Fold this sequence. Notes:
heterodimer, A: alpha/beta, 10-stranded mixed sheet, two-stranded antiparallel sheet, 42% helix, 26% strand, B: alpha/beta, 7-stranded mixed sheet, 5-stranded parallel sheet
Amino acid sequence: MNEPTHGFTVRRVVIALESGCENLQALETAAELAARARAELHGIFVDDIRLLQIAALPFTRQASLHSAASLPFEPADVEAQLRALARRARRCLEDVATRLRVPWSFETVRGDRASVIAATQGTDVLVVETTTRPFGQYLKMSTEWSEIAITCERACLLTSAAGAKRKGILAVYDGSEGGEHAVAAALALDGTRNSSLTIASTAPAAAETTLRQQLREGDTSAEVRTIKTLTLPELARVMADANCGLLILPVELVTRHRAELETLLAAPTCAVLLVN
Amino acid sequence: MASQSGSPDLISEPIVTLLSPEQLFARCDPNSLPGDSTDDLENLPGLIGQERAIEAVAFGIGLKRQGYNLFALGMSGTGKHTVIADYLRREAARQATPDDWCYVNNFADPQRPKALRMPAGRAGPFRDHMKKLVEELRAVLPATFESDEFRARLEVINEQFKQQSEQAFGELQEQAKAKNVALIRTPMGLALAPLRNGAVLHPEEFEKLPEAEQAEIKQTVEGLQQQLETLVRRIPEWERKHREAVRALHHDMTKFAVGHMIEDLRGKYQDLPAIVTYLEEVERDIVENSADFLPQARPAMPIPGLEAGDSDGHSFRRYQVNVLVENEPGSGAPIYYEDRPSHQMVVGRVEHLARMGTLVTDFSLLKPGALHKANGGYLILDAVKLLTSSFAYETLKRALRAGEIRIETIEQMLSLASTISLEPEPIPLDVKVVLVGEGQLYYLLYSLDPEFPELFKIPVDFEERVDRSVHNTLLMARMIATAVRRQQLKPFSRTGMARVIEQASRLVEDSQKLSVHMRSLNDLIVEADHFAMRAGADKVEGEHVQQAIDAQLRWVDRLPQRMKEEIVRGTFRIDTTGSATGQINGLAVISLGAHSFGRPSRITARVRLGRGEVTDIEREVELGGPLHSKGVLILSGFLGGRFGGERPLSLGASLVFEQSYGGVDGDSASMAELCALLSALADVPIMQSYAMTGSVDQNGNAQAIGGVNEKIEGFFDLCNARGLNGKHGVIIPASNVKHLMLRSDVVAAVQEGSFKIHAIENVDQALEVLTGEAAGKSGPDGSYPSGTINDRVAQKLAKFAERAAAYARMMEREKKL
């Protein structure tokens, strides 16, 4: 169990594993985060109850991604496939955790995504996959986890294959308590990530001044950039300048700018950490 | 058996056979040589007396037809290499420089590298141009693919594809949503599920629905399902088109980047269509494989042995130019001497690299052989080395027969290899091969290999000796001067040159000839220079040459000295004083390496009543060779011819080399054996102060033998060790007189009268010298003067015949009784 750093504490990194996701990239990200935060890595595989319900309907079939053939979709088959996928997910989790020397655990939860949230605690960081690629290289489908992440009242990391090589961290500070948490998380992760830290401030001038003062006193090398109006293009520009590989946003801010940020959250171009 | 009967003092010597000191050594008068020293003499181009060889070389080189290759035959050290190389050097300088040859990748079939021919001097620059091209491409192409233009165009393609697929799925999703159906990801693919209040319709709820509604939902989902399947089926096609679009983009960008570079090169080589064609193939390959020029991601954990492979330019090897032969323009035809003519060194080889535990190869690892290097010129090979190297001779013949050089392993040549290896395109062969070897080898090949006369039509036969004419003597002096200058030795004075010339005669054992064995003469010159240097002399004088000759003899004199010592000590019995009946000193020559020395041998003969047979004891115990047996049979023939005309020979005789424990061969002792036999028959003692050599024919005439100088010197050394008394001497055939080039101490002893050398024409002269008694000439009736040796032999044989007849009659009577 680690000590709080700059007010951001990670006790457990929980990764949500699903049958419809690739999981591997998210697993790597989650394990890396757990290793840096010296936290436990916990995997939760969702036995999606919806699939069993769909399979029980008399007319449903599934379109194979590999052969485009129409395949039978029977509850028994789904059960077997889910068990196999759960075993595979466990093995992958074990492999990556062993490699990074992270303590790990694994459980299977039958239900829906709410069941995953229910299985987590307030100090956990939930790691989820935001998009899936059922076909080829370019077609992405949203997993719709971002919707749940915004409302789950947990720190939630939306993973993305894009931006994995970029090292910069960008936190958005809006002067709120959530904004302070975002900065705290950025400072905490910056210390372990050996990366450049940029703070995009949308906060009032006074709050921003205070922040700058605090950063100076804390002897941090973070660059503070002022954003007058938070728009997606503006944020994208700052992200590009900061070589952003991890974007940290306060949930409140996201909620306020939901429409503006929806595209980013549905298919983020880098990992996004939402903090309360 | 030897008795000291007879008194040598009473013998009147037949002076006509006695040789004068002048006949024993053909001196070279220093005053007959021009100049004071070799400094005054011009160099001698080429060698002495090799006109026949040079004519053959000129003919063989001039005749540009298949099979007119040369075999230079002659003793080792006669300067064959020098003559051939000198001649070829002059000829080659006048001839056109052959083309350069390269191997390049065959893009259509890399197992069969292509051979490219280009004028002399252009292969090197071509290789450099190609190397530079690849280096530039490695810089230019990554930059091209990182350019804004490329990124933008790629982005457009990706976006188009993305939009196409997203739009199709989006429309399906919207359509499904409108019909209250959700597109759900399943473990195996995608499925469509009816929704109720935003959640998937529970099966139990579905069952409760009216049948009409159930049917409607089912119909809706099935309709969407069909659309979904159609959509999924179109995805591979979209992906293929996407890949093609990206490839086309790479192609366009690469072609643009490469095109002008290749065009530049094409301009440089437009006079060579084969190169232009090759450059077009290169351009095509680069365009098709442009991804090779982009930085490759290295594996996290590189596999040992692999990391230096593809990422470090392995894939660019296929654009390399492997220059096999590069000739300097205007340098003439090449002359190449291959010192190790193995299969690979003759025809070239395919080298391999170890990669990932296996051996791999490509055209860039093809290495030229001697035939490549000599192509268009001349190849000199040592015949013995060629023949003793496995398959090298066969390889050479195959290449000459086919008129092309085909690089292949021995396994491929013998069709033993089952693994796939390179099969480089053969290169046309136009070469004159000169094999250099001993004469015996030439004759063996000629008789045993039917292909040899077809492929090596010109024998270049090198003389080992020339006439010792005034002209050749002067040429020899110039040859000495040339060797002195070439090796930066002290000049040879006239006495020095004269002594070398005299030794040249001794080397060939002929006072009327000169050796042209260059190695021996050169060794003598160098060693004489060393003695002169040690003596602090300005010039090499005759005494220094003599010191060198003496030193050469001294170094190999251990065994002869040991033998002489044992004879002097009496271990080996050789009488050099007194007389003995049926006993004579024969002379043998023993060769040890390059040195030969004479060794006396005691030959004895015993006679008795018999059936006319002369028993060769050496042959009986299988120590005598065929030539020795032949000699014994010849002397038997002489005996029968001279004394068995009227009655059968009823003698039994035995001949032996006493204390001979090794083999005996040759017929050079047959005259001595005949004299011993006649001595035994006539009961006339032979003076043991003489030794004798020479063969005899069936008429009793003396015939020349080899090693006459060594034989005389061998007996002289023994007598000298025991003390010369004026009666010691050697009898040789008259036909050997011209071969005499005796040591100065032997000549001096003859001069002083303490040693004699007789030259005889026939057995009668020999007997008279050996016994001091008249041999006797037969009269008209076939009888010999009474008391002469021949008469006593005839009397003895007559007695044997009478006794044999009496014995036969007695046996007849006993038989009747």
